[in-house]
Design brief:
alpha/beta, Peroxisomal Thiolase, Chain A, domain 1, 337 residues, globular, binds coenzyme A, 2 domains, 5-stranded mixed beta sheet, 10 helices
Amino acid sequence: MSAPESHPFCSSSLIGTGSYVPERIMTNADLEKIVDTTDEWITSRTGIKERRIAADNETTSDMATAAARNAMEMAGVDASEIDLIIVATVTQDMFFPSTACFVQQKLGASNAVAFDMNAACSGFLFALQTARHFLNTGNRRCALVIGAEKLSSLVNWKDRNTCVLFGDGAGAVVLRRNEEEDAPGRVLSTIMGCDGNLTGILKVPGGASAEPITQENVDEQVKSIYMEGKEVFRHAVTRMKEACEQALERAGLKADDVTKVIAHQANQRIISAIVDRLGVPAERTFVNLQKYGNTSAASIPLALDEANRAGVIKRGDILLLVAFGAGLTWASSVVRW
Ligand SMILES: CC(C)(COP(=O)(O)OP(=O)(O)OC[C@H]1O[C@@H](n2cnc3c(N)ncnc32)[C@H](O)[C@@H]1OP(=O)(O)O)[C@@H](O)C(=O)NCCC(=O)NCCS
């Protein structure tokens, strides 16, 4: 077993969480009116009961900024103290500038360097690890790590295979450099992985350089989500379980030590399969996908904030965060709360 991952100079801790979801609720009953589906099918296959849909004029950076403000308030951190902003998203406001630059402007965080990260549904944990490297090496002191998505802008509302799965929202954390070994919220380890051989099973094929929108394909929904659900499911369970084991080993911990698993909120059956294989009791999972569906990069920080504010997680708890997404990408992180 490898030693706990630590940097010779410093480490970093989560000192605040925040989230935001749009007001508009779309229930499974609402979807029954749009596509050939049923509440029973969606609930039994995924666990999802409803999802949030952003207003037409509400952007990903609006949601990201709202979540960030909540996290900063909890952390007691002023915008001027933030020197790094990373926004994980696949639904950026525009191709450019980055969504993170819009967030920087909206927060007035003028001392921050800001950029986006795309690792699909694993994006938040990729961003967390990236921020951690900036902090642990002494390059930056205080980071906002945000996952935010307006997936309703990528959904084909005529495709029942995918439109029932996704929702909009944002979650954020403040991560601060902290030299104290036992500081609360300390990130103990992070694992990341990719398999580019499987880019084809989960993608938005069009609308960018590979297949720009043209007069000819404008009606073909090329800029919407394509997914081979069964294949994605299979790889998700295998990769997430492995990533959990690796992150725990790197932190010098065992599955038994885990207080709460906060997994990417895509499908209740995926979460159940992972914890079952890890040997972690089902009651040690935190699940909110019934309310929000799959919010991609937003899902883990959204769940983390909800669990935190509800008092479900407490100081000293060992949290196991794990994500999986298009790419394929996967990531896992152990945090001592
Ligand atoms: C999408 C998912 C819920 C589908 O469940 P499944 O048990 O694999 O279902 P299938 O795709 O085999 O479809 C079974 C049947 O239900 C139908 N179906 C698909 N969506 C439906 C819907 N919304 N309502 C009713 N029927 C539906 C299919 O057409 C198929 O019908 P057929 O047998 O007549 O062809 C599941 O594959 C899944 O969760 N995959 C992972 C998705 C995910 O997590 N993606 C994001 C990762 S980041």
